[in-house]
Structures are given as C-alpha cells and as structure tokens.
Amino acid sequence: MQKLKTNKAIRSRFKVTKTKKVMSSRTKRRHLLGDRSASKKRQARKRWTMGKIDRKAVLRALPYA
C-alpha cells in the first residue's frame, strides 16, 4: 500500500498538538498595522484553536499528524 500524501500548504499553516487540537496563528499580523489598535495587535499574538468541523478537514489532509 502506498504512503498517503500530506498537504504541504496545510502543514505549513497549522500545528497539531498531542491531543489532536489544531492551532494556527491569528490573521492580520503581517502588514498595515498602523490602523489597528494596540489591544487588537496584542490579541493577535495569541494562538488560535480551530473548531471541530474545520478540524476534521485539516486532520484528513495531514494523515500522519
């Protein structure tokens, strides 16, 4: 039986924890930060945990995670 392929784009964007939680960084942190308030920028530093429905799709694309 062949090995399953890992989706490299998804692998680079998400991290799967030991308990199969899918974590990613928050959006709107790359550029144009002058318009955003300090509290919004501070909140965006935290990691984001994905919900159950989307988690299934990501874990399907990462067979060895």
Provide the descriptors you would attach to this structure in a database record.
65 residues; alpha+beta; Factor Xa Inhibitor; 3-stranded antiparallel β-sheet; 3 strands; 34% helix; 14% strand
> Which strand order do you get reading across the main beta sheet?
1-2-3
Radius of gyration: 15 Å
CATH topology, what is it called? Factor Xa Inhibitor
- In DSSP terms, counting alpha (H) and pi (I) runs of 4 or more, how many helices? 3
Structural class: alpha+beta
User: Mean pLDDT across all residues, rounded?
Assistant: 94
Give the low-pLDDT segments.
none
Largest sheet: 3 strands, antiparallel
What oligomeric state is this? single chain
| Helix fraction by DSSP (H/I, runs of at least 4) | 25-40%
Silhouette: elongated
Give the SSE string: HEEHEH
- The tally of beta strands, per DSSP, is 3
Strand content: 5-15%
Name of the CATH architecture: Irregular
Question: What is shown here, in short?
Answer:
With 65 residues, this protein is an alpha+beta fold. It contains three helices and three strands.
How is this structure best described in words?
The chain has 65 residues and is of the alpha+beta class. Helices cover 34% and strands 14% of the residues. It has one domain: Factor Xa Inhibitor (Irregular), CATH 4.10.410. Strands 1-2-3 form a three-stranded antiparallel β-sheet. A hairpin with a 5-residue loop joins strand 1 and strand 2 (22-25).
How are the secondary structure elements laid out?
Elements (H helix, E strand, L loop, with lengths): L7 H6 L1 E2 L5 E4 L12 H6 L3 E3 L2 H10 L4
Antiparallel strand pairs: 1-2, 2-3
